Amino acid sequence: MEFKAINWKLLGIILLLSNFLVKANNAEPFKKNLLEKQKINSLHFGSSVDFLTFEKKVLTDTLNVYYDWLFTNKELLLSDENPYFKVHVLLELAGAKYAGDEYDEAFKYIDSTFVFFQKLLFPDVYLKINRYGAAIAYSKSNLKKAGYYFEKMLDTEKVMSDSVLLADIYLNLSNCYLNDQQYDKSIHYSYLAYPIFNALNKTPELIEILLNMYNCSFFTSNDSTNTDYLYRAIDMAQNYGDSILISTTYDELGKSYYRRGNYPEAIRYYKIARNYASDKGSKREVRIAVLQHLSYKYMPDSVEAACEISDYILTQSLKNKDVKLLSNAYLSRANCFANHGLRDSAIYYLERSEENRVAYGNAGAAQGYYYVMYEVALKIKDYERAMRYLTISTEQNLKASREANTGELTATRAKLDYQLQKEQISELKFINDLQQEKNKRQQLSILAITLLLLTGAAFFIYARKKYNQLRESYRE
């Protein structure tokens, strides 16, 4: 038996070694491909970066072996005298950090590449590496960093002399700053992009710019004419005949009514938008469903409709592996359970929602999200949790106001709203504590009365029994 045990142990060691060797051998092509770039010269450097793709690599055992080798030999590889080889090493290191969700480290390696070549001599390489950085920033919803890379791209003669490329970068910057709530910058780049796309007759891009201009105008002024941008975009989409563009414009129209508090109309246009989004269950359609759910939340007679759509959102988000949407999906379920008084289930989904938002969302630009969290926590009377969500929401709202340059008035109003809501929570907590104390007293009173009645009944039964005994004795 001992001889067999030793053989099994040896066999296990041999299998582990062979498995390691297989992985190491599979990693050899990666190493070879990188080391071959030591021979690159200035003539071939431009084409050598064509391999660069913006997709995030999925870590495998083989890739982990390669990345371990890469970081172990990092100093040696970067000591090579060939600057073009160093660029490739740094890009590989950036890709490794990107795959491992270490975004800040990935940005450092990308930014380091620009030291080793001149953008005037290699504009295509310069632009592609900046696009790579922007793609990584987008994947983490780091819109400031994405804007930083796109703005760097403007500082090249190649871009400024190519109207199509220039307009595309302007549009990307408009989107970055809109989603980062820097509306003045967003509308600035929209105005720069519009005449170029108009001259090129690029309808989809023009629609996107018009929607950006509408949203920027809405958030920075009280001018009701900003809806002209929106209706013009809808007309262009209808004439163009593209169902996705029509869906997008009706989605924005739904948001317009939602912001004005007209929730039935908002729901009507969200439904139209979902119908035009013919790919039922797609990420696009589910995201519109999330907005539809928000409208139901403010309609007391739509609790069941809201719960039904919240279940659909969560199911489809998990099916699509849409990790960025899961925080909203979990939040919608939390709201459903809160409306039905199921406190524990609501708390469970609130916590899942926040965990997902911190891991995959842009936690620095989510004051609206945390305000909804606050409202759900209020429904289940979890006042400490509600206070925490309200504080986060207010802090982010103040930060967004400063960055968007919307003025001291907005900041003052946000502080006042926070103070009023904080007082409301304190008052509700006091009332809740008072009610609980009252309930306890009532329960004690009921218990005392019940015990008194039981004691009285027991005494009456005992006395009656004794009386009957005495009467029987008297008869005898």
Descriptive labels:
disordered N terminus, 81% helix, single chain, mainly alpha, 476 residues, 22 helices
Explain this structure to me?
By secondary structure, this protein is an all-alpha fold. 81% of the residues lie in helices and 0% in strands. The chain is built from 22 helices and no strands. The protein has helices spanning 2-35, 45-48, 61-72, 74-78, 83-99, 103-113, 123-139, 143-154, 157-160, 163-179, 183-200, 203-220, 227-240, 243-259, 263-276, 283-297, 303-320, 323-339, 343-360, 367-379, 383-403, 408-475. Helix 16 packs antiparallel against helix 17 (303-320), helix 16 packs parallel to helix 18 (323-339) and helix 20 packs antiparallel against helix 21. The radius of gyration is 32 Å and the shape is elongated. The model is unreliable at 1-6, 13-23 and 404-409 (pLDDT under 50).
